[in-house]
């Protein structure tokens, strides 16, 4: 992958780097019998189920370790974000290569407020929003990226819009997979994503396309 002309890349953690289908919270809610809004995620009664669910879902998506290695070789500033409690997010992130920076909420308003995006870029010591990209599958996180003024790439098949573990996704018939993929892609474009791909393995080509669009003067 040749070095794209971007200042920093931000990734959603669940449904993007780990936990195909972004199922950590859903599994925890199922096991605990509790529902949770973003503001309730750190509630003590939900935390044990979240930690157990994180252990179950802490698996890097295909192509992610190689992608992160290549970005590291390019010295590309990168970080992941998630609204899950820090301890839960760290258990999930343990499946990633060492040295991948995580940015936590640390008092930021919940998504879709842009605070967490700006905070993560500040921690990466990025001085300008120009050329910063968010890659995520969670519509609320993508909306936060749009509100923050960065390029946003949506992931259709590996996030909550499809909501399936990798094995369950692969077990679907072609027609059912295509139907889910098409609907998720449409939903992400309707949200305002600048580009939509199926999974992180398609990111290098997508970044090259965005680089061409930037060179032509397009802005997020």
Question: What does the secondary structure layout of this molecule look like, with pairings?
Answer:
Layout: E1 8-12, H1 24-32, H2 47-57, H3 64-73, E2 78-81, H4 86-93, E3 102-103, H5 115-123, E4 132-136, H6 139-148, E5 151-155, H7 166-171, H8 174-191, E6 195-197, H9 203-215
Parallel strand pairs: 1-2, 1-4, 2-3, 4-5, 5-6
Task: Describe the structure in your own words.
The protein is α/β, with parallel strands linked by helices. The chain has one domain: HAD superfamily/HAD-like (Rossmann fold). Helix content is 43%, strand content 11%. Helix 1 packs across helix 2. The longest helix is centred in the C-terminal third of the chain and has 18 residues. The protein is globular and about 50 Å long. The model has no long low-confidence stretch (mean pLDDT 93).
Gist?
This protein has helices at residues 24-32, 47-57, 64-73, 86-93, 115-123, 139-148, 166-171, 174-191, 203-215, and strands spanning 8-12, 78-81, 102-103, 132-136, 151-155, 195-197. It has 220 residues and is α/β, with parallel strands linked by helices.
């Amino acid at each position: 992958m040749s070095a794209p002309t971007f200042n920093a890349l931000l990734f959603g953690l669940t449904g993007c780097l780990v936990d195909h289908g972004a199922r950590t919270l859903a599994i925890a809610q199922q096991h605990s019998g509790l529902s949770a809004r973003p503001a309730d995620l750190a509630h003590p009664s939900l935390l044990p189920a979240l930690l157990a669910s994180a252990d179950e879902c802490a698996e890097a998506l295909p192509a992610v370790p190689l992608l992160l290695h290549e970005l590291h070789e390019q010295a590309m500033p990168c970080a992941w974000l998630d609204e899950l409690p820090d301890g839960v997010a760290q258990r999930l992130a343990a499946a990633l290569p060492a040295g991948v920076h995580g940015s936590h909420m640390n008092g930021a308003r919940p998504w879709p407020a842009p605070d967490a995006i700006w905070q993560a870029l500040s921690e990466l010591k990025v001085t300008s929003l120009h050329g910063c990209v968010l890659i995520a599958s969670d519509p609320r996180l993508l909306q936060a990226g749009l509100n923050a003024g960065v390029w946003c790439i949506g992931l259709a098949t590996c996030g909550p819009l499809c909501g399936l573990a990798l094995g369950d996704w692969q077990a679907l018939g072609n027609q059912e997979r295509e139907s889910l993929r098409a609907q998720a892609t449409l939903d992400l474009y309707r949200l305002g994503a600048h580009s939509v791909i199926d999974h992180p393995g398609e990111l290098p080509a997508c970044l090259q396309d965005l680089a061409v669009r930037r060179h032509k003067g397009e802005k997020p």
